[in-house]
Amino acid sequence: MTTPVPSPAPASPNAAPAPDRTRTAMGWLHTAHFLTSAPQLEHLPALDLPEIAFVGRSNAGKSTAINTLTQQTRLAFASKTPGRTQHINLFGVGKQKVDDAVLADLPGYGYAAVPKEAKLRWQRVMGNYLMTRENLRGVVLMCDPRHGMTELDEILLEVIRPRVEQGLKFLILLTKSDKLTRSDGAKALSIMRLQAGGGEVKLFSALKKQGVEDAAELLWRWAHPKE
Ligand SMILES: Nc1nc2c(ncn2[C@@H]2O[C@H](COP(=O)(O)OP(=O)(O)OP(=O)(O)O)[C@@H](O)[C@H]2O)c(=O)[nH]1
Ligand SMILES: [Mg+2]
């Protein structure tokens, strides 16, 4: 008779069983709190913590995703009116009141009613942010699959490509997936995976909580690569 060999205790949350990993990631995100808000890049404080930016078209669901992932109702300001988020808003995250990462909610782009000058200004601010923000560790591109990938989404992918090649993490969340049938969701996933050139793509619904735990775990791992 063979004696079963006990498996070693998990050394870190990354090695822990899936429910524990999820709990760790969700608990960590729940600690999120407002840090600061800046109208322009030069007003953003330089930070020494890994930063994860939520970017995408206006009304795609960035602020709602931040609220859902952090399990808070009004941390980020979500609204039916496109163009609601006009500043870069930073949120600190970390257990025991010690921040170990930052979430950044960025204003959306592509909203038709914004005057051209303001649009161009914002595109410059965002381009600069994505290219130069030193502590940027990951980018979550929120994309409504009913609109597909827009020209500005593609430009954004081009802008971050050199940094992705140097290790910047990158995830596309296909938002409002509750509005898609199962087969349309599957179709959107495969199309976007082709367009994303190998990046991770997931379906996400704040309403139905689809993809929330997966996204939370991924963000946790981005912020804690050594654990
Ligand atoms: N059905 C559905 N609606 C959603 C979901 N996520 C967001 N919404 C709605 O989409 C609208 C826009 O959401 P926001 O989170 O404010 O979008 P945003 O990307 O932050 O928009 P800007 O700040 O203008 O760039 C709101 O009316 C939300 O309630 C979702 O998963 N399902
Ligand atoms: Mg917003």
TrEMBL record:
Region described as Disordered: 1-21
Protein name: Probable GTP-binding protein EngB
Gene: engB
Residue spans of biased composition, Pro residues class: 1-11
Keywords: Cell cycle, Cell division, GTP-binding, Magnesium, Metal-binding, Nucleotide-binding, Septation
Role noted for this protein: Necessary for normal cell division and for the maintenance of normal septation.
Transmembrane region(s): none
Superkingdom of source: Bacteria
Signal peptide stretch: none
Family: Belongs to the TRAFAC class TrmE-Era-EngA-EngB-Septin-like GTPase superfamily. EngB GTPase family.
Domain EngB-type G: 48-225
Pfam families named in the record: MMR_HSR1
Cofactor(s) required for function per UniProt: Mg(2+)
InterPro entries found in the cross-reference section: G_ENGB_dom (IPR030393), GTP-bd (IPR006073), GTP-bd_ribosome_bio_YsxC (IPR019987), P-loop_NTPase (IPR027417)
